[in-house]
């Protein structure tokens, strides 16, 4: 089975042409893959390697290095709560428990309908909104009870 | 108090080109472009601008180490470091959100001086909102013909703190693991794809429009000796008013704390982390320390990237040190054995102390782990591992002793 649709293949090829050197587009290409598949599988990495004319182990090494890329399937809404120092001081532990209870799944595991997953993250650059909450790479303010209950569709 | 970067922050539409230009935006670029490149560099030199990404390296000096085109022909690049991931730091996010054109103007001035025709903004992936603001600003600037012959490229990271270190940033951009390089060569000689590359922080570059417009001396005058202009502190933790405060270089810690409304709820101060969690904390007795890159060194810590975390008397030094070491262990790139193993050990020893299973000699063990890293690894993250444990143990011995006594 093909790893990507024709349209997705076109997007990946575009990333090889966007910058002065093809390899400069690799991280963005893998970000696109993570967005489509909610994870990066070895099969997907192998196809990306072909498109970028790189060895598979190079792309797989990169895909397994960066926290944005996962080997588990995230929810459509990927939620992160910061446990950096400022956020931990303002109750990130409590926010974690509340996320687990509200979403009904432990961290790094999507809900059965695939809609949501949550995980802890390092400093999100929003320490004044502690404990900071991130939804699909967008900072949404403090992880209050209200903010967490609104995550559910 | 004199403000440079946040002067117009009460303008709700400052992020739009029209508003930015109405307030004098892109005048600095215009002026710079009317000058010879060495003359602009001379103004930056006179300004005493220091790198605000953490290291405080003199900006003009960094630029002057780029080999001239007649010696090393071919492309050269300017890269904006917008990776901001040090716990406690969020001033770049605020600058990107409120004043994207200020950064673009600064980047274009730098690109002119360096001779870069391709310039990059590398922004952490978690700043998607800010990425979109930048996309819009670049399109606006391009539409208004402000980019000249410079191609501006945006690029997002993938969640690794170490990508913020300049040489690891370049590796990430090149589509590799974010493994810091062992300099020399430094990036200004061999950077992105081996070409001369200047990497500067968001805040550093945002200072350039003022310097170009008003002159280097005017900028230098605002700051302290060898530390020109202002600096942003992003304050968080136990204070009344968290937020970003811009003050002249050399302002006393006491005064920044006062701007943030002081310790929350009238509690007593335990310590202040001045520049992000990698920097050793300051105590009540240090409140008169002047905050610039040099003066703060006398108090045994660093300005870092202005991520100020205030902790009140309820904070526990063992818990704090554990949180920081957990972060470092998670973010160590794993390239150097002493750092990879040492950060983990430090985290685990502190965890054990937290669980009440501390053992005699833990403090000595933590110190030894630190010694085995310092000076034996490629980058400053490794050095931080030992520096943090050393600082908290020596400044708060009672917090460590208490746990040992409680659980005997
Ligand atoms: C572990 C580590 C992480 C860093 N992260 C950042 C960062 O996120 N942003 C940044 O501008 N500089 C960061 N730096 C500093 C950069 O290596 C580099 O000095 C800086 O971007 C240069 O810009 P400046 O001279 O304008 O400060 C980091 C340094 C270290 C050791
Ligand atoms: S000191 Fe640590 S983070 Fe730095 S290069 Fe070595 S292993 Fe990587
Ligand atoms: S420590 Fe949580 S956002 Fe910075």
Can you give a write-up of this model?
The complex is a heterodimer of chains A (153) and B (408). With 153 residues, chain A is α+β, with helices and mostly antiparallel strands. Chain A contains 7 helices and 4 strands; from the N terminus they run ααααβααβββα. Chain A has helices spanning 6-17, 26-37, 42-52, 56-65, 85-89, 92-103, 145-149; strands spanning 77-82, 116-121, 132-135, 138-142. In chain A, strands 2-1-3-4 form a 4-stranded mixed beta sheet, covered by helices on one side. In chain A, helix 1 (6-17) packs antiparallel against helix 2. The radius of gyration of chain A is 17 Å and the shape is elongated. The two termini of chain A are 32 Å apart. The model of chain A has no long low-confidence stretch (mean pLDDT 97). Chain B is α/β, with parallel strands linked by helices and 408 residues long. Chain B has helices spanning 17-22, 27-33, 37-47, 59-64, 91-98, 100-114, 128-143, 166-173, 202-206, 208-214, 216-222, 253-259, 317-331, 337-354, 362-373, 380-395, 397-407, and strands spanning 77-82, 118-123, 151-156, 197-201, 230-237, 243-248, 251-252, 269-273, 290-291, 307-312. Chain B has a 4-stranded parallel beta sheet, with helices on both faces. A 4-stranded mixed beta sheet of chain B has the order 6-5-10-8, covered by helices on one side. Chain B has a two-stranded antiparallel ribbon with strand order 7-9. In chain B, helix 7 (128-143) links the parallel strand 2 (118-123) and strand 3 (151-156). In chain B, helix 14 (337-354) runs parallel beside helix 16 (380-395) and helix 15 runs antiparallel to helix 16. Chain B is globular and about 70 Å long. Chain B starts with 16 loop residues before the first helix and ends with a helix. The model of chain B has no long low-confidence stretch (mean pLDDT 97). At the A-B interface, helix 2, helix 4 and helix 5 of A face strand 3, strand 5, strand 10 and helix 13 of B. The structure holds flavin mononucleotide, iron/sulfur cluster and FE2/S2 (inorganic) cluster. Iron/sulfur cluster binds at residues 162, 180, 332-336, 339-340, 377-379, 381-382 of chain B.
């Amino acid at each position: 089975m093909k790893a990507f649709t024709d349209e997705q293949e076109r997007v990946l090829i575009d990333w090889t042409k966007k910058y002065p050197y093809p390899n400069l587009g690799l991280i963005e290409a893998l970000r696109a893959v993570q967005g489509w598949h909610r994870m990066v599988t070895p099969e997907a990495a192998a196809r990306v390697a072909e498109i970028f004319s790189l060895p598979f182990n190079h792309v797989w090494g990169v895909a397994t290095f960066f926290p944005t890329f996962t080997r588990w399937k995230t929810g459509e809404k990927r939620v992160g709560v910061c446990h950096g120092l400022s956020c931990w001081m303002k109750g990130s532990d409590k926010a974690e428990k509340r996320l687990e209870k509200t979403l009904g799944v432990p961290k790094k595991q999507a809900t059965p309908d695939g809609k949501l997953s949550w995980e802890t993250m390092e400093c999100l650059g929003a320490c004044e909104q502690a404990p900071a909450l991130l939804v699909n790479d967008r900072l949404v303010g403090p992880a209050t009870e209200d903010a967490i209950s609104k995550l559910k569709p | 108090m004199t403000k440079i970067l946040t002067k117009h922050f009460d303008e709700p539409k400052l992020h739009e080109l029209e508003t930015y230009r109405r307030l004098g935006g892109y005048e600095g670029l215009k002026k710079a472009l009317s000058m010879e490149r060495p003359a602009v560099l001379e103004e930056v030199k006179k300004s005493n601008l220091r790198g605000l990404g953490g290291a405080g390296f003199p900006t003009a000096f960094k630029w002057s180490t780029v080999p001239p085109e007649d010696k090393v022909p071919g492309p050269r690049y300017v890269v904006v470091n917008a990776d901001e991931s040090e716990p406690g730091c969020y001033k770049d996010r605020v600058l990107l959100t409120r004043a994207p054109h200020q950064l673009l103007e600064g980047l274009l001035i730098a690109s002119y001086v360096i001779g870069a025709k391709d310039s990059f903004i590398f922004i952490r992936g978690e700043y998607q909102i800010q990425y979109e603001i930048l996309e819009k600003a670049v399109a606006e600037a391009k539409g208004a013909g402000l980019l000249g012959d410079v191609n501006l490229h945006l690029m997002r990271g993938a969640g690794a703190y170490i990508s913020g270190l300049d040489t690891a940033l370049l590796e990430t951009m090149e589509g590799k693991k974010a493994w810091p390089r062992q300099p020399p060569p430094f990036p200004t000689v061999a950077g992105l794809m081996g070409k001369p590359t200047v990497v500067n922080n968001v805040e550093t570059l945002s200072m350039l429009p003022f310097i170009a417009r008003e002159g280097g001396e005017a900028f230098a005058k605002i700051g302290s000796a060898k530390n020109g202009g202002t600096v942003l502190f992003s304050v968080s933790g136990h204070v009344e008013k968290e937020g970003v405060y811009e003050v002249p270089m050399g302002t006393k810690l006491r005064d920044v704390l006062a701007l943030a409304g002081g310790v929350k709820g009238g509690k007593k101060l335990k310590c202040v982390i001045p520049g992000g969690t990698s920097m050793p904390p300051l105590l009540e007795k240090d409140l008169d320390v002047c905050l610039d890159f040099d003066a703060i060194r006398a108090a045994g810590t660093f300005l870092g990237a202005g991520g100020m975390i205030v902790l009140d008397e309820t904070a526990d030094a063992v818990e704090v040190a554990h949180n920081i070491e957990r972060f470092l262990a998670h973010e160590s790139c794993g390239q150097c054995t002493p750092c990879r193993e040492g950060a983990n050990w430090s985290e685990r020893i502190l965890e054990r102390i937290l669980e009440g299973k501390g053992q005699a000699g833990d403090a000595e063990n933590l110190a030894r782990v630190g010694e085995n890293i310092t000076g034996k690894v490629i980058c400053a993250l490794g050095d931080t591992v030992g520096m943090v444990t050393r600082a908290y143990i020596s400044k708060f011995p009672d917090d460590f002793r208490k746990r040992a006594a409680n659980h005997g």
